[in-house]
Amino acid sequence: MTAQSTIDQAEIDRFSAMAAEWWDPKGKFRPLHKFNPVRLQYIKEKVCENFDRDIRDPKALKGLRFLDIGCGGGLLSEPMARMGAEIIGADASETNIEIARLHAEQSGLDIDYRAVTSEALEKEGEKFDVVLNMEVVEHVADVDLFLASCARMVNPGGLMFVATINRTQKAKALAIFMAENVLRWLPKGTHQYEKLVRPDEIKTPLGSEGMEIIDQTGVFYNVFTDSWNMSRDMDVNYMMLARKN
């Protein structure tokens, strides 16, 4: 019997091929660079609130252990490390991890990058105060297994952030057709509609592992200001926050 896996090799190959561009704000990962400020603000605010930290403290995350799963080139791992967090950045792509390690070294940051899956980390007995699960679930082979393995690594009272794209016709039009074919933000094929994940498909596997959704927000792109902002509309991009009971 074949062991279950969260790996979708085609997705890993796709992102590995673009890995050299992770840190180019005008390259293929431009949308993530644009998206980074709003998700960083959300993460810092909610972590400080949950762990009773002073959000004005430059090292507000000191003493907290983070997992950035599907870390890519480290666009989230590096800011978290700068705020004092102990970070493990994990990605199934060796190429992504090599890029992330090199950039962290050049930036003078101590980040533990590993080419490994969530289920492998779980088997190693790893535990975290915060798991960042950002723009990953739509690229894995088994969403339930992936989310459950991540949830089991969250310490009691700890948090998991999930950001992804909703499986709606609106998202199909804006996040796939417009982004890939009209605005040319992303290479064609970056997202497949059938792999997009609805909010209730996040809640169920997390709930079965003792995690409760405590916050959720939509995120939209304002074409006039060329910036991302939080919104009540979760039909396209959205973020969810769960806490381990």
Structure overview:
It is a single chain. With 245 residues, the chain is α/β, with parallel strands linked by helices. Helices cover 36% and strands 24% of the residues. The chain has eight helices and eight strands; from the N terminus they run ααβαβαβαβαβααβββ. It has helices spanning 9-17, 30-50, 77-82, 94-106, 118-123, 143-151, 169-182, 199-207; strands at 65-69, 86-91, 112-115, 128-134, 154-165, 211-222, 227-231, 237-244. The chain has an eight-stranded mixed sheet.
Helices and strands in order, then pairings?
Layout: H1 9-17, H2 30-50, E1 65-69, H3 77-82, E2 86-91, H4 94-106, E3 112-115, H5 118-123, E4 128-134, H6 143-151, E5 154-165, H7 169-182, H8 199-207, E6 211-222, E7 227-231, E8 237-244
Parallel strand pairs: 1-2, 1-4, 2-3, 4-5
Antiparallel strand pairs: 5-8, 6-7, 6-8
Helix pairs in contact: 6-8
Which structural traits does this protein have?
245 residues; alpha/beta; eight-stranded mixed β-sheet; 8 helices; 36% helix; globular
Low-confidence stretches: none
Q: Topology as H/E string?
A: HHEHEHEHEHEHHEEE
Specify the number of helices.
8
Radius of gyration: 17 Å
How much β-strand is present in the residues? 15-25%
**Which geometry do the CA atoms define?**
globular
Strands across the major sheet, in which order?
Answer: 3-2-1-4-5-8-6-7
Secondary structure tally: strands: 8
Structural class call reads alpha/beta
> Roughly how many Å apart are the termini?
34 Å
Question: Could you tell me the mean pLDDT?
Answer: 92
Overall helicity: 25-40%
Characterize the biggest β-sheet.
Answer: 8 strands, mixed
